[in-house]
Automatic annotation (TrEMBL):
It comes from Desulfosporosinus lacus DSM 15449. This is Adenosine/AMP deaminase. GO terms for molecular function: adenosine deaminase activity; metal ion binding. GO terms for biological process: adenosine catabolic process; inosine biosynthetic process; nucleotide metabolic process. It catalyses: N(6)-methyl-AMP + H2O + H(+) = IMP + methylamine. The keyword Coiled coil does not apply. Its cofactor is Zn(2+). The lineage of its organism: Bacteria, Bacillati, Bacillota, Clostridia, Eubacteriales. InterPro entries: A_deaminase_dom, Ado/ade_deaminase, Metal_Hydrolase.
Amino acid sequence: MDIERSCLKLLFTKVNPEQIIETACREPQPSEQSIFDSYKTISDETFIGNANEVFHNYTQNEWDNICIQLRDKLYNPHGVFGIIYKISKQWLVINKGEILCQFKELLRWRDLSFHLGQDLLTTAFLARWDYKKGIERTNFSWPAIIKTDNHELHEILARGIAENHFHLNGSTQIFTLNWISLMNHIFGRSKQFKALNCQDVHLYRCKYAALLRYYFFLRIQDRKLSQELGEFFGLGKPGIPDLDAASNLNELQNRINAGIGLFGHKSQNGVLDYAYTTDSIAHHNDGNNRVLAGERKLLYDCYTCAFNGSFSECEKNLFYAYLLLRTRFRSVLVQVNGQRGFKNFDNYQKRKEIFLESPKYEYELVRLAVNATLDYQKIISLEARICPKKTGADNCKVIQSIDNYASIKAKEGIQDIWSKQSPPKPTPPKELFYVLHFPKAAVGLEKKFNFPSVRGRDIRSDVYIRTKGIMDLMLRDHFCRDRVKGIDACANEIDCRPEVFAESFRRLTDLHCNYEYAFPTLQAPPPRKLHTTYHVGEDFLDIVDGLRAIDEVMLFCGLGKGSRLGHALALGVNPQRYYYLKNGKLILKRQDLLDNICWLLEKAKSYKIHIASKLRIELEKLFKEIYQIIYCNKDQKKVKICDYYNSWQLRGDRPEIYLLSNKEFEDDLLRGNSFLPKDQYRLNQHIDKTLRDNELYRSLNYLYYYNYDVRQKGNELEIFHVPQQYDDLVSHVQNKMMEEIAAKGIAIEANPSSNYLIGTIDRYEEHPIFKFNPPPGNSVSLSVSINTDDQGVFDTLLENEYALIALAYKKGQSKNKQAKKALEYLDYIEFLRQQGEQQIFK
């Protein structure tokens, strides 16, 4: 089955769709099977050219055998479509009309459906299933992600699950929305494709897809119309249709527009998709998944025609080409490229709305993300993360807009939102609330003539403006303020330390203290407690770097009981395996390496962790060498590691105060002569105040923030050769930090599929959740919740995230022979479910 799964990946991700279109009507003879690609054969060039990537664990002799077997399976009346059905039927079941995945096959299903898309597989399965049983299927608005058939698991999750980490715009059906928008409005898209800047998907390929999609839609609706369209554009003739000419593309768009007017269901939002027809509206009830129905029905009908012989050989090839083009486009919106790290994910999430220009699709975005999610699962709390705007008014506008989208039934449309009259107060789902997340940005090195310029000047300015916008929203007696329950900082954490957000976090979690100063003429509303969470330890260039960032969040931003850490993978990844995968070599900026070494040594001291003398000497020597390179000409006294560590603790203060002279510093801060209420958050109250009395510590902090030479030399890269026993030391620090975090009452937001795809774990059994929150009987147990993160980018569902962890737990216990009873994994899932419920921001 694993070989067949790999073969199907090859058939849908490595075959050239243009070649299929070009040779669509030429059926190769058996003697020519090694030359052409088609829906029922694969060429030597395609197979051998990709075998090393797809079948890297097999020898070349085995490749030959796999290729022969694959050709034998393809050379049948149903070709690749029959292979899809054969594989899918071993994993999928239908229970009371609902399509489900067998729980025991979830990992295999997850792997294949993630790469190809669930609809490509489910519609083929249902088409063949219904054809064999004589069923006439009418409803195609089933949920975007199907569940498993594990009844016991569903019973537990039906008690209520909390979604505590849910980025709103990344949690809709990103691919489907963009695809439908593009297929209905293909003309004038050059700008978006240029911005997409992706070699795998070009406008000319999507032109062919739009033509093929409309052809097959007409083929199902009206054979005469499809023949006329095919003849006009040359479908079925040798070569590729000419759509490069603007006149031809314009003609295609005009014909699609005609189909939109003739067939598409005219909701009050406009026509979403010509394939979502007026005839089908009664079967889908215009519900939350309606935008998925048109494409699904089209695929289902085409598969049916392929199975029952209605399609010609040419049409089968063209349908295969459409599926290839569709899968290729999906690969630039759903993170399937197998690359690790947040930067790779960031490339995907930036594309998520690139083809959604019309308000009607923005409306569907929210409906699919919020309402469809709530309808299909027993979610008792949905914590939607959105980016704060720069003014209170804009924040209110965004929240009201989302609330309206989520409040109005799909069939009612959005006429109130776009009318000139003031809309009534929305009544959004009671489970929905918001957390505002500051976007992180890399801290660069400004030009020398801009100095003295604080490190992170641009991002600090942005954070300051957005903080004012949040304060304006929260401190006024406004409906929207009650919709916001917390703050966060998200996005790529490399080169953006928590110190940037420290003052804002302290200020925003204590808003009522600032009210009189901020708005002296207004009557203060009741104090509101904004909760805190922070994306940290998710992506790092050394585990120690991630651990230090977690410590900085707690120390600088003031996270305490009831707060959460998003991801925090650095706490739980296996150091031995991590450094082995890196071949014992890391590349970091000198400043980060210096800070990491200092922090690790001092943290180990505070935790009373023994460090082998050889390792200690090596780390101390490296610290001194790097320190001399960065700070060599600054006339500093001989600086000890503890001195540098103490200066590091001052980074949570507002940097500008260290620009003052010694006397001004003493007058302003130490004696408190001008310590105004508005400035009370500029100092980090979570450190020993006497640290600021030391002139050396203040000087080092000033150099870190303002000296150009220090920053320039600190930005240079250094290869760090990981010493022996370094991994053991890191492991001990991880364990002690987990104890500290648990004692402080800080929880972890785990996102299994997100962590699997971004982090360095290769199997769900390796997820740090089993270290954070192990089975009962272990000494340390952090509070951990299961969440989806960006369920659209990762093509998942909260219930399936629980199911994946349940199956991983079950496999792990079976492998280690630790299971005491067959259903022990369900007890663990119930324990995690309760943890998620307890983490809800009240």
